[in-house]
Structures are given as C-alpha cells and as structure tokens.
Amino acid sequence: MSPHRPPQVSVILPVRDGQRWLREAVDSVLAQTLSDLELLVIDDGSTDATPAILDEARARDPRVVVLRQSREGLVAALNLGLARARAPLIARLDADDIALPERLARQRDYLQAHPDVVLLGGWAEIIDAQGASSGRQMRPSPDGLRETLTKKSPFIHPTVMFRTDAARRIGGYRAAFEAGEDYDFWLRLADIGAIAILPEVLIRYREHGGSVTRTRELRQIYSARLAKLASAARSHGGPDPSAILTAPPDWHDDDPGNFERDSSRLFRMLELADPSLARTAPASAIDLAAITSQRSTLTAGERKFAQAALLNLLRERRDLPVSRARLIALLLWLGPAKAMKKLIRTK
C-alpha cells in the first residue's frame, strides 16, 4: 500500500486495557486477504501492556496506525478513528474479537456491487475466553431490516462496514446516546441510504467474564428508547429532537427537556430493579403511572426491568403508597406466567 494512496478499507479498533486478546484481534486484521487496508487502533488511556503491544505491531507493519487519547470513552475513540480514516470504507472490530480472513474482502465486494448500501452487517461465531467455539452463532436476519431497526438493532457492531462519507455526513457517533451510540448511528445512517446484512460469518465474537452491569444495561435501554423516538420524529419530517443533547441525559433531572421527559419518568421507576434503590426510594418516587402510561411502547428489556422493580417493591417495602394488589396486577400484566413464578418464590 502506497503511503500516498488511500487504502480500500480503514479498520477502526478502539481499546482500553485490552492486553489479553489484543494481539489476536490485530493479527486477524493484518492477515486479511484484502491487504490494502489501514488499521486505526485508538488507545483510550490504557494502563496495562496495551501500549507496548501496539508499539510492537506498528513497528512490524506500517499499516497499523496508533492513536491515543486520555480515557475519553468509546464515542470519542470511534469519532477519532472516523476523523482520521483515509479509506472510503470503514470496518469495525473490537479488541477481544477475531476477524475471519475474508471478512473485509467479502464486505468490500458487496458494497462495490450495491452502491446504494451505506451500512452492511454480518454474522458472528461465538467463542469463549480461550477462543473455543461455543457452538452458537449470531445470525440476524437480512430480511425486513428497516422494520426490525425501528424496534431494535439488527446489527452486531464489530461486524459492520459502512461508507466513510455517509458516516461523516450524519456527524458520526453521538455521546448523548451512551451505551446505545451504535443503535443511534445505525438509525441515522438508514435515514440517508440502504442497509443490509451479509448472511455470512465474518468474525469470531468473544463472550467472557466482563459482564454488563445492571446500571449499564439500563442506560443502554434508555439510550435505545431515545434513539427510536428521535428516529420517529425525523421520519415524520420534523427536526431531530435529540440534536440539542450534548451529553447523556440524567433521568433524575428535575427539569428534563420535553424530548426525554416521559422516558426519564419511566426510567426512574425501572431503576428500582436494584433492590437497594427500591428499599430506600421515597414513597413519592413510586410512580406506577410512569409504567402504565408507556404500556404500548415497552420493549422486552423495559418489561424485564419493570418486573424486577415491582417485585423488589413487594419484597422490600411496607410503606407502599399504592395497594399491593395493584402492584401484583401490574406485575401480572407485564408477564403473567413468569411474574407468577417469581411472586410465588417471594412468599
């Protein structure tokens, strides 16, 4: 690859303290059958051996470009990579995953054959911490993508390839959608072009002990709700109501904006899925109407948190501002069979 000619593909790989699997991830990119690439690794303030691993990779292969920032987070890392990418196509990979050898070539070929597609995903094989296959695959359906996207993300982030100019045109990733920045990104790309999934296994996706905390999962679900609301507003020809957000909204804000007001009210209730919060929340904070007013729009994840919150209130509280019968009725409405089993176990 000539240093003066842009590569065909730029691979963006953010990492923080990723020494355990980073070499495998980097080597899987450098061993691609499509060799005309650059690998942009954004080190988000690592304090382990990550910087040394990256220096060694850069020394042995000039296609590796190391960018460093001081623990500014994933969105900042992704946008730094997007700003520095020289190729017309960008692929994503995480520091604990492995790209299969023909991954980039297969996606490049598809996008060359389908110039209207701005975002292309793929399938993944699931592996464990040691790299052994679990026998499972993540296979999002390539059919009905737009309808699916209005409800949830059909894309596996480290499998995607997208057009650089399209990503820059929509302003890249947005920090306001913390833990759900990818879903907001897909929705905005879909506003300006076609989307697709290549029905082939492109990466080996590692599942390991770094489990998602309840707080982060709730934030992810909150960001997804806001992203869907913003997308719906845009689809009806209105301005993007989330454009004014420069940081993740705080659902405890005493004066939230009109855009996030109802969602914030709902998530103040959903966070009572944490038993300690359910135990100490003031009676005035127990707002069942926040859940019932959103009945028609609750996602599976939101229902799960709502069930846990209601169960915690039944277990932990004696000073409820509503009757236990009303709590039980709402719990059963959220998921009758499952709720009843949980309720029986609490007695």
Automatic annotation (TrEMBL):
It comes from the Bacteria. Pfam families: Glycos_transf_2. One of its GO terms (molecular function) is glycosyltransferase activity. Keywords: Glycosyltransferase, Transferase. Residues 233-255 are annotated as: Disordered. The keyword Glycoprotein does not apply. Residues 10-170 form the Glycosyltransferase 2-like domain. The keyword Phosphoprotein does not apply. Belongs to the glycosyltransferase 2 family. This is Glycosyl transferase, family 2. It comes from Rhodopseudomonas palustris (strain HaA2).
